[in-house]
Amino acid sequence: MRGEAKRYPGPANPAGRTSSGSPENPQPASAAAASPILCVDRDTARDRELLHLHSHPEPMLTWSSTATLLGTVASRDWLIPPGYGLWVPGGIEHAGSVLHAGEMVTITFSADRCPLTWTQPTSFAVGPLLREITTHLHDIAPGDHTRPAAEALMFELLTPLPAHHIHVTMPADSRARAIAEALLARPADQRELAAWADHVHASVRTLSRLFRAETGLTFADWRAQVRIRAAVPMLAGGTPVNATARAVGYRKPSAFIAAFRRVTGQTPGTYLPQLR
After folding, report:
1. Sign of the CA dihedral 231, 236, 237, 243?
2. Structural domain boundaries in the chain
3. What is the Cα Rg of the chain in Å?
4. Which of 9, 122, 153, 236 has the CA that lies 20 to 30 A from 271?
5. pLDDT at residue 30 greater than cutoff 90
C-alpha cells in the first residue's frame, strides 16, 4: 500500500516536519507536544496486498474510502468495507489483506496522549463530515491554527458501532479460500457453488465438503453469515433495510430479514440508529 503521509509533531517526529523532511509552519513545542496524532497516511490499497502479523505500542485507526479490507486483530477477522473503519489499540497483534483495491486512510496516535479509551478492536462508520475532517488533517501543515479544533471534532465524531460478534471462519484450502475472499469483498455476488466450482477448477462435491469440513457450515450458510455481517454496519450507519438487503445480495427483503434472524436472533431493525 502506497500513498501520501502527513506526519505530525510528537515523539515520532520531534522536528515538526512533514514526511518529506521540509519544515512546515513551526509552532510552539508545547502545542506540538499536545497533538495525539503522529501520522495521517492516505494509501492506495492494491488487490491481494498483505500486511503480515505485527504489533506496535501506538494505537491506530484505518478506514476505507473505496477499498475492501480484511483485518485480523486479536485472532478475529474484521471486514472493513468502504465507508467503515477499524480501531486497533496499541500492543495488539494485527495483520491485513486487500480484498478489493481502492483508497484508504490510516491515522497513528501517540501511545500516551490519545484520548480514545477503546481497549478492544472496534469498528466505526465514516460519514461525510468525518471523511472531510480526516482529509483536512492530512492536507494541512502541522502548525495550522485549525488543527486543534479539527482533531477535537474528529474524536467527537468517532462513534463505535454496536458489537455484533458475527464470526466468519475462513477455510484454509486455497480453492475454498479464494471463493471466501471474493465473497467477503463482494457479498452481493450471486454465483452459486457450481459457478464457483468452474471458477476455481474444482468439483461442486469437493467444495461442499471443504466448506463443511473447514468452516463447520454449508456453503449457503457460510455465505449468509458473510452477508449478514456486511449488513450490520450498514444498518448501524442508517442504511434502510431494503437498501441494505439489495447491497448484500438479497433480491427480496423478506429473505434478508429471515436470514438476518437466523444468524443474529434479531431483526434488522434492531440495528437501525433510531431503534437502538
Report:
1. positive
2. 2-157, 174-275
3. 20
4. 153
5. no
Q: Cβ distance 153 to 119 under 8 Å?
A: no
Angle CA(10)–CA(16)–CA(20) in degrees, nearest 5? 115
C-beta neighbour count of 247 within 10 angstroms: 17
Place of cell 501543515: 141
d(CA 159, CA 239): 16
Q: Which fold has domain 2-157?
A: Jelly Rolls (2.60.120)
Classify residue 251 by burial, with Cβ atoms within 10 Å: 0-12, 13-18, 19+.
exposed
Sole residue written with cell 478475529: 76
The model carries a pTM of 0.64
CATH 1.10.10.60 fits 174-275, yes or no: yes
Q: Which of 74, 123, 131 is nearest to 234 (CA)?
A: 123
